[in-house]
Design brief:
Blueprint lengths: L17 E5 L3 H12 L3 E6 L23 H6 L4 E4 L5 H13 L2 E5 L3 H4 L5 H7 L4 E6 L14 H8 L21 H21 L6 E6 H9 L3 H8 L13 E5 L2 E5 L4 H10 L14 H7 L1 H9 L3 H10 L4 E3 L10 H5 L3 E3 L6 E3 L4 E3 L16 H6 L22 E5 L4 H11 L3 E6 L25 H7 L3 E4 L5 H11 L4 E4 L4 H6 L3 H7 L4 E4 L16 H8 L19 H23 L3 E4 L2 H8 L1 H10 L16 E5 L12 E5 L3 H10 L14 H6 L1 H13 L3 H10 L4 E3 L10 H5 L3 E4 L7 E4 L3 E3 L18 H7 L4 H9 L18
Parallel strand pairs: 1-2, 1-4, 2-3, 4-5, 5-6, 13-14, 13-16, 14-15, 16-17, 17-18
Antiparallel strand pairs: 6-24, 7-8, 8-9, 10-11, 12-18, 19-20, 20-21, 22-23
Helix pairs in contact: 1-7, 6-8, 7-8, 7-22, 9-17, 16-22, 21-23, 22-23
């Protein structure tokens, strides 16, 4: 596939689907942007003051009257705008008429429209039973926390994501992931959930409620199955914060990012920096501990080398590496230039990323301008849309993908989380491994190789692969490749996230798949795409974060940025899922399959879009600022009294004040102290200017109280606040219990452990997502091969030749976590 789109054109999959956008903010805006990219007609209904993003700039740029903020211009591209005053009955009647004619409504709090009783979720559901209603809220629509105040920042704290993977130096406060990445990630999940619901409600006359919790999306995107890990292995994934080594390091002429995700990469780094004596295959130390022990020498060597030399050497050693991208340099990166990853906003001329996937045949249109406030109101008043075709309500299948067969050629996190969503909603997913090279997540447990079947104990593998089948097949052999092709011919969908050259080498690229079965959908998830200068570079999550800008906004301002070390993988997975759902709709309409390229870096560039947009539109380079952010003032982490479960004085609370009313509530909860009465603090501008002073007083107040007391006092006052949770303590959150977010999953070898589900509650079900445990290595090989027509004798022969097998052919030291 070329760096741009192929010349073949097709009708957009969602053409004819009408979406009413009653949301405000990034999550709803990105959800409806993705639906619009898929061809839906999106009618954004706004109160007279307009969406808050119309006047938003993260850098504080002044938005002139009659103009819109650049971020709004990106998110609202191609939508229509209808103005409706909730104080006018005739305007509410117009909204009702629009809802009557629509297929989907996307709803969130935060505007006067959705606060009106006629436009509550329950009222919309009663009056418009045919609609898919997607509600995006911090905690979900029901439960003990459903009405609690929250922001992106406090939700990251509740999720455990702020300390989940040990991000940051122990002598400093932990740090959140900058750029409101959680809201973008929630928007992508909302889009996928909306398309899932539409798929099963089409033609039924029955709508559905899609209830998305942003907290739950953050648990899935910012933490790495910590509850499953803790309960299966009786220990947390990590007990203290450590800097990644090398991570983002200072070179002689700038910054460079390097990472070691495997033991082999650590060995190669030792050789690269001239210290092969550090290689010790028998050590009990984790990779992080080994690297940390030698950090001074590693950083000293890097500081003497130019970035280009470091990257060339690292690439030669196959060590994951990349430049540290930000809003100023992203569009000039040779890879992004070669792939034309950015385009020009058609109305305002700033740079913006292209959609996060590349379909063939191509149904993506060139960017369209965002509407001015109320631009399409007169048209809809004059010609009221027809009422939606109403049909007798029909029962909905709680497992909408039940007829789908998926060939899962994925490994680690990004690919498996895409196919896992399908498996949890009914698809037959056949996960292909080989005995000599099992899925890498099977090795993430720290279980000694002396323990029988040690490769079956990984909670990470288990958390990503319930309901799937596992077969082993060594497709380095001609016989293995032939069997893989035969299996592919029986599958509706193929998803793979190998390096691009692998499928070419085994003869299973898309043209070969089309010859086997023309209606097959193939989703390819390379790290950097199928072409371009970085095509063959190793692409672990942290490198994707580095090369997209996600790393740049994370960390304290007095140090190099910190890699989030999490979001790069699941973000790629949910974007690939969106692409796959669009491809399924294309096949439903045309009967044809298609190829989708869903590069990890393209997904990351989209959720980091604000950096490029702000720099291009306003000349402002957004900077990391510790735990402060542009949306709230004050916003920070404050240390509470007491020690954590590991005996450290490391208990923190997150606080974010987004409105003047919340500030007044905060000061009242603090006892109306004299320092807080200053008129300079009555506005957000003044509070931002005096942030250091406010921090001093809040630090003193919090230090005298424990986390629970602080949260109780401030939350009861309506102030967004949160404990910085240890991630394995997520089940202690009552809201998650109410929504059954965790389900206990028994395992034939490992301990029973609770597994996270998905961040949506569909009104049509299912009631349970994990129906069978993750498969043992090769558990279903005989079953699947027998269904292809192989005899027992042929299967025995394959095992004797090592083409299939149920245990690793060569025992390797499992990766030890820290």
């Amino acid at each position: 596939m070329s760096s741009r789109q192929t010349t073949r054109a097709a009708e957009p999959p969602l053409r004819g689907c009408v979406v009413i956008d009653l949301s405000s903010g990034i999550a709803g805006g990105y959800c409806t942007r993705m639906l619009r990219d898929g061809g839906a007609r999106v009618i954004k209904v706004e109160a007279p003051e307009g969406d808050s993003l119309r006047s938003w700039s993260a850098s504080g740029a002044v938005i002139e009257s009659g103009c819109d903020g650049a971020l709004f211009g990106f998110l609202a591209g191609g939508k229509e705008s209808v103005l409706a005053d909730p104080d006018r009955t005739e305007d509410l009647d117009l909204v009702d008429t629009l809802l009557d004619s629509a297929d989907v409504v996307v709803w969130s709090r935060g505007s006067r429209l959705t606060e009106h009783p006629r436009l509550s979720v329950s009222a919309i559901r009663r009056a418009h039973r045919h609609l898919v209603v997607t509600a995006i809220t911090p905690f979900g629509l029901e439960g003990p926390w459903s009405d609690r105040a929250a922001t992106e920042f406090t939700l990251q704290a509740w999720s455990g994501g702020i300390v989940g993977l040990g991000r940051g130096a122990p002598e400093q406060a932990p740090v959140y992931i900058g750029g409101r990445v959680g809201e973008w990630f929630a928007g992508a999940y909302a889009s996928a959930a909306t398309m899932t619901s539409r798929l099963r409600t089409l033609g039924s006359g029955t709508g559905e409620l899609v209830d998305l919790s942003v907290l739950e999306t953050q648990i899935l995107g910012l933490t790495y199955f910590p509850v499953s890990f803790y309960e299966a292995l009786d220990r947390p994934f990590r007990t203290q914060r450590r800097l990644s080594v090398p991570g983002v390091a200072s070179a002689a002429d700038g910054m460079v990012a390097l990472g070691c995700g495997t033991s082999q990469q650590w060995f190669d780094l030792c050789a690269m920096v001239g210290h092969p004596e550090w290689i010790d295959e028998d050590t009990d130390l984790s990779i992080t501990e080994r690297a940390g022990k030698n950090a001074p020498e590693i950083f000293a060597w890097l500081a003497e080398q130019p970035t280009e030399v470091i990257r060339d050497l690292a690439s030669a050693f196959r060590i994951p590496n990349g430049p540290v991208v930000n809003g100023a340099n992203a569009t000039a990166m040779d890879h992004h230039l070669a792939r034309e990853s950015f385009t020009v906003n058609p109305r305002d001329g700033f740079a913006q990323p292209r959609p996060p996937y590349r379909p063939d045949p191509n149904w993506l249109s060139e960017p369209l301008p965002a509407p001015r406030l109320g631009e399409h109101t007169a048209r809809y008043r004059a010609a009221r849309p027809e009422r939606h075709d109403t049909r007798p309500a029909a029962a909905l299948n709680p497992l909408p993908f039940q007829e789908l067969r998926v060939l899962d050629l994925t490994t680690y996190w990004a690919g498996p989380c895409c196919t896992h969503y399908l498996a949890m909603l009914g698809a037959e997913v056949i996960h292909v491994e080989s005995a000599s090279r099992p899925d890498g997540t099977r090795l993430i447990a720290g279980v000694p190789a002396t323990q029988e079947q040690w490769w079956e104990y990984s909670p990470i593998f288990s958390g990503l692969n319930t309901n799937k089948k596992s077969i082993t097949l060594d497709f380095r052999s001609e016989r293995g490749r032939e069997l893989l092709s035969r299996l592919a011919a029986t599958c509706d969908v193929i998803v793979e996230n190998y390096t691009p050259r692998v499928l070419d080498q085994i003869g299973l690229d898309y043209p070969a798949v089309q010859r086997l079965r023309p209606d097959t959908i193939m989703v390819r998830m390379p790290g950097f795409g199928l072409d371009g200068p970085w095509r063959d570079n190793p692409a672990f999550a942290y490198v994707i974060e580095d090369t997209s800008g996600l790393t740049w906004l994370t960390g304290h301002p007095d140090r190099n940025p910190l890699e989030p070390y999490s979001i790069g993988d699941p973000n790629a997975g949910v974007h690939a899922l969106n692409a796959l759902l669009l491809a399924l709709e294309h096949r439903r309409r045309t009967g044809n399959g298609m190829l989708i390229e869903a590069a990890m870096v393209d997904a990351a560039l989209n959720v980091a879009a604000e950096q490029v947009i702000e720099h291009s539109a306003y000349g402002a380079l957004l900077q990391r600022d510790g735990n402060r952010g542009p949306e709230a003032a004050p916003q920070n982490l404050y240390k509470a009294s007491g020690t954590d479960e590991f005996g450290n004085q490391d208990c923190w609370i997150a606080l974010a004040v987004t409105t003047d009313d919340q500030w007044r509530s905060l000061t009242k909860a603090l006892g109306d102290p004299l320092w807080a009465r200053s008129p300079d603090l009555s506005t957000a501008t003044g509070r931002r200017r005096e942030h250091d002073t406010i921090d001093t007083h809040l630090t003193e107040w919090c230090a005298a109280r424990d986390s629970d007391e602080i949260v109780r006092i401030l939350w009861d006052a309506g102030v967004p606040v949160a404990k910085v949770m240890q991630p394995h303590r997520q089940p202690e959150i009552p809201q998650l219990t109410t929504r059954d977010f965790f389900e206990p999953v028994p395992h034939p070898i490992a301990h029973t452990a609770r597994h996270s589900t998905i961040p949506i509650r569909f009104s049509a079900g299912p009631d349970r997502y994990h129906r069978t445990p993750a498969p043992l290595l090769g558990q279903h090989t005989t079953e699947v091969l027998a269904a292809l027509g192989l005899t027992a004798a042929e299967i025995d022969e394959l095992e004797s030749e090592g083409i299939i097998g149920g245990s690793p052919a060569v025992i390797r030291t499992p990766v030890k976590n820290d």
